[in-house]
Amino acid sequence: MTRFAATFAKPRPALVTFITAGDGDTAANLDALVAGGADVIELGMPFTDPMADGPAIQAANLRSLAKGTTTADTFAMAAAFRKRHPDTPLVLMGYANPMTIRGADWFAAECAKAGVDGVICVDIPSEEDAEIGPALRAAGVDLIRLATPTTDAARLPDVLNGAGGFLYYVSVAGITGLQQAAQASIEDAVARLKAATDLPVAVGFGVRTPEQAAQIAKVADGVVVGSAFIDIIAEHGDAAAPHVEAFTRTLADAIHGAKEIAA
Amino acid sequence: MTDLPNSFRTGPDERGHFGQFGGRYVAETLMPLILDLERHYRAAQADPAFKAEFDYLLKHYVGRPSPLWFAERLTDHLGGAKIYLKREDLNHTGAHKINNCIGQILLAKRMGKTKIIAETGAGQHGVATATVAALFGLPCTIFMGAVDVARQQPNVFRMKLLGAEVVAVESGAKTLKDAMNEALRHWVANVHDTFYIIGTVAGPHPYPELVRDFQSVIGDEAKAQILEAEGRLPDMLIAPVGGGSNAIGLFHPFLDDESVEIVGVEAAGEGLDGKHAASLAGGRPGILHGNKTYLLQDEDGQITEAHSISAGLDYPGIGPEHSWLHEIGRVRYEPVTDAEALASFQKLTKLEGIIPALESAHAIAAAERIAPTLGKDKVMIVNCSGRGDKDIFTVADALGVEL
Ligand SMILES: Cc1ncc(COP(=O)(O)O)c(C=O)c1O
Fold first, then answer.
1. Which of A54, A131, A150 sits opposite B191 (nearest CB)?
2. In angstroms, rounded to a whole number, what is the distance separating the alpha carbons of residues A203 and A13?
3. Is B88 in the pocket of ligand 1 (CB under 6 A)?
């Protein structure tokens, strides 16, 4: 069983957390996420031009790059994480150019070597799958696709074709870190997606509080929280880990119990 | 070079690729929208009323056709090929940018979009967009890097007079590429009612194709004009390349005319060893802003800052069709430095009474380099893509003159 399958087989919704590699003390923060109860880790690969991100994650990218974080550093952080945490699924999330600049085969092989389970590439839609999809699948790394409020029924099969790991539902048409979508629209969308795929569906963008997360966890298989962690790291710098762990725990408690409360 | 196509004018393919370049590298949120844009563009292409309205506005509002001026004094001074200038500087708003803006706002209207956004570097495309938005009575927001806002105050004020809101972009390096990032971010969040008028032949398909088509009026006119003036095709075309819209507009109608040599001019800034904006000479293929093309970047694929004295050429990428024309060898791309462009800016002004945009001065500099090596029986057309009034402060500063 893959790490994704084992995680989503648990009888409770998953907490999926995002932080940017090289922003703050990444190793300590990753450990804090796991200790606090995160089920899936998304590690952002910093990029100079994060077009789909709001101000918080943009700033995290620039802080990381200003410290000199390289792609080799990101893979080293991933590999070290895998050694410390053999069971927690790890996803690299980022933009096409850093992922493909040395060739998709190189990138896929590095992912496999580092123990990365899945990749989210923001600016490679299914139309351009050839750019990275075949290489990842051949290396046994899942390509996690995004569905959005603008993904209509006609496109959805294309989006799902070649997708692996889980399906990431971007709940707002917009960038990261903005307002949350209405609960009703999330429920409709998740139902629509789950009717179309057996993949677990995780919902993200704009989720900042345990209350919001619990609401979404009633209907989704996972809830993604990113900018709220980035804000904590921006505030506390290299000493953020205890704060990260405490916040993770409040989210995990809210999400893991959500379906029982609902039942 | 194997496998040369029968025609250089059939691209892009149905997926928006010119060879390995171009494509649609956008977030899923935008994908349905650019597919929709493509459908509407195909319908517009097939609709004679669309073309009629475009032509009407170009003639009566923009002032086309723009003249093809025989630059006799410059020609005599250089002692080689005959130099003709395609006078895009005489268009309304002072550059070629308006041609594309007219086309795109007509598309926006067809699509029922009620808000307009655009990115701008120097402010030329921003002014042209704000102008057509005023003409059509649509609210308009222009994204401009905070650094550019500070150094292009006259254009910022022009845009505001035209009724546009100018957003100073504080992210990244606060210049053109960051303005484009911010415009894309705004668009993602407002796809239902907003049309993004991209200012050059870059971005996701179908933008590079439709911007090229709207700008091809430059080359179509130039061809008819040179046939009338000289009774034959030119031997060479020269145009400056930022994203590449004025250049492809001049080049495209001539791509299949084998006898016509074609030269695009990249901004070499302080020189190719220093800070520059020459994506083809100093970059390599990568993915940014929705397309695959040559980019200035480091070995990890991080985009590096461009530099040119000309804000309109100060971009770390280039349109994908130019990357393709470069790779197959149909167009030759040459670098011109800040210093060379500054010298040509002054020379053209003194010899012809035409103050060119600093962007255009790059093409003039290449012409100065090449014309003397060609016989007097040769003919070249140089794209004077814009007028230089916007640049007088920059030039004065570079020359150490206080205004
Ligand atoms: C007068 C002029 N020429 C050239 C350019 C470069 O753009 P492009 O390469 O798209 O023609 C600009 C851009 O601002 C411009 O204002």
1. A150
2. 11
3. no
CATH number at residue B137: 3.40.50.1100
Nearest CA in chain A to B173: A48
d(CA A176, CA A174): 7
Last residue of a domain, one of B211, B236, B267: B211
* pLDDT in 10s for each residue of chain A, 263 residues: 899 999 999 999 999 999 999 999 999 999 999 999 999 999 999 999 999 999 999 999 999 999 999 999 999 999 999 999 999 999 999 999 999 999 999 999 999 999 999 999 999 999 999 999 999 999 999 999 999 999 999 999 999 999 999 999 999 988 888 777 889 999 999 999 999 999 999 999 989 999 999 999 999 999 999 999 999 999 999 999 999 999 999 999 999 998 875 44
- Ligand 1 site, residue B209, Cβ cutoff 6 A: no
**Whole-angstrom distance, CA of residue A134 vs CA of residue B28:** 19
Is the bond leading into A55 cis (omega within 30 degrees of zero)?
Answer: no
Contacts of B26 in chain A (CB under 8 A): 123, 125
pTM: 0.96
Amino acid at position B319, single letter: G
B88 with B202, same domain? Answer: no
Distance, in Å, from the CA atom of B263 to the CA atom of A117, rounded to the nearest integer, reads 48
- Asked if residue B314 has its Cβ within 6 Å of ligand 1, the reply is no
User: Is the separation of the CB atoms in B252 and B284 below 8 Å?
Assistant: no
CA distance B33 to B40: 11
Q: Which domain holds residue A168?
A: 3-257
The residue assigned the tokens 């409360």 is A261
Residues of chain B contacting A125 with CB distance shorter than 8 Å: 24-28, 31
CA distances from B222 to A48, B61, B82, B230, B231 (A): 40, 19, 15, 12, 12
How many domains does one find in chain B?
2
- The enclosing domain of A52 has a CATH number of 3.20.20.70
Tokens 């080799």, residue?
A72
User: Which of residues B162, B192, B211 is at a domain's end?
Assistant: B211
Q: Which domain holds residue B31?
A: 17-58+97-211
